[in-house]
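Why does residue order matter? Because the sequence determines the fold. Keep that principle in mind as you read this record.
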Amino acid sequence: MGGAAEEALRREYVVGEEIGRGRFGTVRRCYAAATGEPFALKTTPKAALRADPLDLALAEQEPKVHHLASAASRHVVALHAAFVDADAVHLVLDLCAGGDLFALVSARGALPEPEAAELMAQLADALAGCHRRGVAHRDVKPDNLLFDAAAGGALRLGDFGSAAWFGDGRPMTGLVGTPYYVAPEVVAGREYTEKVDVWSAGVVLYMMLSGTVPFSGATAGEIFQAVLRGNLRFPPRAFAAVSPEAKDLLRRMLCRDVWRRLSAEQVLSHPWIVTRGGSVPGGRLV
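Structure:
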C-alpha cells in the first residue's frame, strides 16, 4: 500500500488489524477518524491481478457494482466508501463481526428447518434486491454470507468481487464462482443470467439442511462434471427428517433448466419460505 488512494483513505479512517484474507487481498478493521465508528476495510492490490484481464476488470468494477447492490437490501453488506488508484482498490464496508454461515454449519451441522428457512429468506431478499438493480453476485456461498452482530445477527451478503452488472440486458459470460456452488450453465461456458445466483443459493440451502453439498468430487474438474450432470439426490441419512416442502424448493432452485428455475423473487414466495419452514406463518425478516 502507499498510493494516492491509501493517503486519502488514511485521512478519513484509522486502519487496524487484519481480520481476514482472500485470494487477492486482505480485510482489516478500520475506524472512522471523526467518530471512531468501526468498519471493515477490504484492500485488493492490482499488481497480482495484471496477469489476468478478467480479475483486474472485476476488481476495478467492484466499487460501482457493490455501490448499486448496497442500496438493494438491508441484507447486503453496505459499501460506505471507496478509494481507488492505479495500485489498489480499498473498500470501506459494514463490519459484520458475527462470523459466517460456513463456520456456523461446520460447527453445528444441519440446521433446523425454521432456522434454515429464515436464513434463506434473508439471502433471497438480498439477491432479489440485487437483481432488481441489475447486479448478479456470481459467487454466492456460505463463506460470503456474514452475520451482523450489531444488527441482531442478521445475515448479510458480502464480497462482490465476482459480481457483474446486467442492467443493460446483455447476457453474462465467464467462468467465475466457486466449484461446489457454480451453476451448470456457467461451467458449460454458455451465456447466462442472474439465475446463476439462485442455483448457488440452492446449494447453500442444501448445505444448511444436510451439512453437505449436493455435487462433489475430489478435484475441481470432478466437481464441475457433477454439477453438469445435475443429478440431485436426497440421501436418507441426511434428509430423512427434511420436509417435502423443503425438498420441493431445492428442486426448483437446483433446476438445470434455467427457464424453469425459480427467480429470487419467486423463492421468497415459495410456501416453505413464507411459513419459515413450518414456523408461524407471516414471520418477518430480521
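Residues 101-274 form a domain with the Transferase(Phosphotransferase); domain 1 fold (CATH 1.10.510.10).
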